[in-house]
Amino acid sequence: MYDVAAIRADFPILGREINGKPLVYLDNGASAQKPKVVIDAVTQAYSMEYANVHRGLFYLSNLATEKYEAVRGTIARFLNVADEDEIVLNTGTTEGINTVAYGWAMPRLEAGDEIILSVMEHHANIVPWHFLRERQGVVIKWVEIEADGSLDPQKVIDAMGPKTRLVAVTHMSNVLGTRVDVAPICAAARERGIATLIDGSQAAVHGPVDVDALGCDFYAITGHKLYGPSGSGAIFMKKARMAEMRPFMGGGDMIKEVHRDGILYNDPPMKFEAGTPSIVATIGLGAALEYMMGHGMDNIAAHEAALTQYARGRLDGLNWLQIQGKAAGKGAIFSFTLDGAAHAHDISTILDKKGVAVRAGHHCAGPLMDHLGVTATCRASFGMYNTEAEVDALIDALELAHDLFA
After folding, report:
1. Could you list the active site residues?
2. Which one of 293, 311, 326 terminates a domain?
3. Average pLDDT of the chain?
4. Which pLDDT belongs to residue 342?
């Protein structure tokens, strides 16, 4: 049984007030709050168990190494990956995608080769490919979204041509909440020998992810959105793709031997994990994923689906509110503007006075803002601890903003 009141009690920050009002935290799409089990894991690691990993031959180093490496297996279970050696630990999706861009794409792609993106990608899944466009003449092919904010998988498949080398698309839009059916995209790409990268930063938070069933080559996640610490994350890489890659960064555990006239790289996944890693943040991420799995990813998804339906019903009742993206099956993310001249930043400021925290801006999705014809939106993004009462608080705050700007 999903007990949202008990879950909320696990998150200390949800008990505080902002501007004399109970905190209504609706910026989960940017970064989620942390349960006490994560805070405790981080505190324990720093206060009683800290040491560097892998190379120490003493108790604390062995303990830190054991806890750190155990997270690789936790992430594999979380994503339904059979071989934990296909999990590369890092600081988050941005590092993961850059690892693929520098380690796999840069040495393999030539001028005229194509990378397919959707117009609703996050900048983390755009900018690294622009680097290749600028430096190597790689062509970026854009796939447009439908009027309701959905992405038709067939349009992505139809965009694949003889020069296509990579398809990189989001599993769930951080602006529209659109869920993308990526499995047929990955299947079609695989038949054509095209690599696939899926940005799972949002999708992995809101329900179960089965990477094996998706059939992608790369799948990236970010810890701070998964109720874990910032500076933590991972990317799944198929071993066959790992074998095609050169290291992204050098130093630390990514080498076996270093000599004056050469080096011997470590085996994957260590080959792609340079320097002293984010030890404590990764341990905290492991605690966060165990917490989520303990409550059941299907249960979290069901709770958020009900919350999405309730929020949609209430927001649709505000005829002066323009919601961007109404795709069927969308997740609990709502981006909106108000009729008139009110800027998203002004709306967000007024909502904050009522204790309601939402994001305002372009949400690191410039091409999507251009497509929508707006410079910025407000975004209310819900998580496993949000409630219908908080939806009501959002509505009350929006009505106040509308009254002030009308």
Report:
1. 364
2. 293
3. 97
4. 83
